[in-house]
Structure formats: C-alpha cells, structure tokens
Specification:
- By secondary structure, the chain is mostly beta strands.
- It has a domain of 250 residues: Jelly Rolls.
- It is 0% helix and 32% strand.
- It is built from no helices and 19 strands.
- A hairpin with a 6-residue loop joins strand 10 and strand 11.
C-alpha cells in the first residue's frame, strides 16, 4: 500500500527568528530504461490511486488514470492527439522560452524533468496520483518546450493529484519504483520548479504546493519535513518547517502528522497566487540544509523568480539523528476545504540539485 501525507499545515510562527531578505532527471529510471511513451494509463506498476480524504492519504488501489479533462482535446500521455468531435486540427502549441533539461545533467544535479516525453508519470515518479484524470501530462505549451503537468481543480473538491520523486537512500522505496541516486545521502539540497495559474485565476491561495522530507523508516515515518504552500488562502507563499526527532530519536510512526513538531514558518512577499500574476510562468526555488548532528546550524530559504523571499539559519532539524538524509520531493495539489471554482494550473522543469539552480 502506498500512502502519501499531503496536508501538513503547521500553525506556529517562530516569532523574531525569521530573516526576511533574502532535478530536470532526464526521464531515465534507475535501471537505465526510458519511460514508455505510448498512451497507456498511468496505472502501471508504481502509480497510486486517487487522492485521499482531508488528510491527503492515498491508497494504492489500482492507480489507473481516469478519463481526464481534455479541455483542449489532449489525451493524457498521447502528445499530439486531438480530441473533440469536429475533427478540426488543434493549433500547434508554442514552445516555452526556458531551456529544456540538458542531455547530460550538470554537476550536482540529481533529477530534472521537463515533461517533453512523459506519457506515464508513474515511470518517472516514485508516487503519482492523477485524481481521476485531473493531474496529467499536457502538451498545450510548457515553460520549456510544449510539455508540462496540468492540475485541474474541481469546484468543492480538495484533491487534484500529486507526484513525488524518490532520491538518495530512501527506506520507503521498497517496491522497485523509480528512484534517483539510490544509496547516496543528501543533507543539503535545492529544488526548483515552474508553476503557472490559468488566466482568470482569482486572488486565492490553493494551499499545498511542494514539500521535501527525510523519511526514516519503511512505514513512512519521517524525521522532518519542509513545505511550501500558500499562506492559508492568501496569495503569498509560506514555508513551514517541522521535525519528528525528539531526544535524538524519530518519534513518527507511519503517516503521523500529529507527532511533527513545528519549527516555525517563513512568509514570502510575492503574490504568487494573485490574479495579477495569473497566466505567466513563475519560478520557485527552495534550499534546505539539515543541521550537523548535535549542532543548530541548519537552513531553510526560498526564492520566487530569483528573488529571495525569506530565510532562516540556526535550525535544529534532527538533533543527533543522521541515519538517512533528504530523500523525497513532492509536488502537491491539495486545496483545503475544496477549490472555489474549476481552475487549472501547470508545473514544469522540476529540478533537484546539491547546488543553487536558478531560473535561467
């Protein structure tokens, strides 16, 4: 059973300690094979089922994709196909201005995906839920190239799918699912992605966006989590930090959000989810450095379009615990309380690296 905790919202603000200021794997899996590019559903080995309930926990019951919302006549994973009943040819999508993933990843890059050849996301991502066809590959035009991942929110519905990248030494990846740099240990990473809200998006934050975790045991107990989300329903980004290490031991068992202890939040100033910025690609990058075991020298910071939004140093993420490092990145589409209307947003150019990535 694959489970995914996609709705951690810490409520504590660590006053006075916030400092305001200031990956594209090619789609080759660990075994060297490339993703299947036919139009099969994403319910093959490695995909999960639909989104779960309010806690965001999913059950891998089947995992096949649904019918989807082919508003532009696209078919999930079948780039270039046309839909509708008229038979009219769809306009050729315009390629985005940003660079695709390089054929050879730069030094320090762990993963890069530009969605130009992803027919089945479960062949690339460790955990993937399409939410009954509402989070699927799109060829309508990307930030780079023409491919991206499209999330369709349905009015009143909370879940709109997610995808997770397993990298490094990861105790939860026990079912031959896609993984990158297996066996390595990462105490410091940067991650970057591009996100675009549809034209006409209201001034409303969709809550969950992305998170990175250090899973510590095979039952999905995690040592810490760092998340990016909207500031409640506000339009700015908020970064939240939490630890499950107490007395130098991991106290979480399974998906146990109640055992996570908030370490504080960082609030951004750019209105990422505003109507004024809708219809344009925005670049989000974050950086986390776990503390040296026994020291309080950890970091957490994030940028929007290359501008530092907020950051904090002197963090104690894990006490002296050091069995595993950072090992799972998730892109999430969970709208607490349900979306206010039918809305779309897109993701592209996901990168994980041990060094700064940037937006160019």
């Amino acid at each position: 059973m694959i489970r995914h905790f996609a709705n951690f919202r810490d409520a504590a603000v660590l006053g006075g300690l916030l400092v305001a200021a200031g990956a594209c794997s090619d789609t080759t899996s660990a075994d060297g094979s490339t993703p299947d590019q036919d139009a099969d559903s994403a319910g093959g080995s490695g995909s999960t089922g639909n989104d779960g309930g309010p806690a965001g926990i999913t059950d891998g019951g089947g995992g096949s994709t649904g019918g989807g919302d082919d508003e532009a006549g696209e078919t999930a994973g079948a780039y270039g196909s046309t839909g509708g009943e008229s038979g009219d040819a769809e306009p050729v999508p315009e390629a985005g201005p940003f660079p695709l993933c390089p054929e050879d990843l730069p030094e320090g890059w762990i993963f890069c995906e530009d969605f130009e050849a992803v027919a089945d996301p479960s062949k690339v991502f460790f955990d993937y839920a399409d939410a009954e066809g509402n989070f699927v590959p799109s060829a309508q035009g990307g930030a780079s190239g023409v491919g991206s991942m499209k999330a369709h929110y349905r009015e009143g519905v909370e879940g709109a799918g997610f995808m997770s990248v397993s990298f490094g030494n990861n105790p939860i990846n026990t079912a031959d699912r896609p993984e990158y740099r297996d066996g390595d240990k990462f105490d410091e990473v940067y991650w970057r992605f591009r996100v675009k809200m549809q034209s006409g998006w209201p001034d409303a934050g969709p809550y969950n966006l992305s998170r990175i975790s250090a899973f510590a045991q095979s039952d999905w107990g995690e040592a810490m989590v760092a998340s990016l989300a909207s500031d409640d329903a506000d339009v700015n980004l908020r970064a939240s930090a939490a630890s499950c290490v107490q007395n130098n031991q991991v106290e979480c068992e399974g998906i146990d959000g109640d055992a996570l202890v908030p370490l504080g939040t960082l609030s951004g100033s750019t209105p990422v989810f505003s109507a004024a910025r809708a219809g344009e690609w925005q670049c989000v990058e974050a950086h986390i450095k776990l503390n040296t075991p026994g020291e309080a020298d950890g970091m957490f910071e994030f940028w929007v379009d290359g501008q530092l939004e907020a950051g904090r140093t002197g963090m104690d993420w894990r006490g002296t615990w050091e069995e595993f490092g950072l090992n799972l990145l998730s892109i999430e589409n969970f709208w607490v309380g349900g979306a206010p209307a039918d809305l779309d947003r897109w993701f592209d150019d996901v990168v994980i690296s041990t060094s700064p990535i940037g937006c160019d």
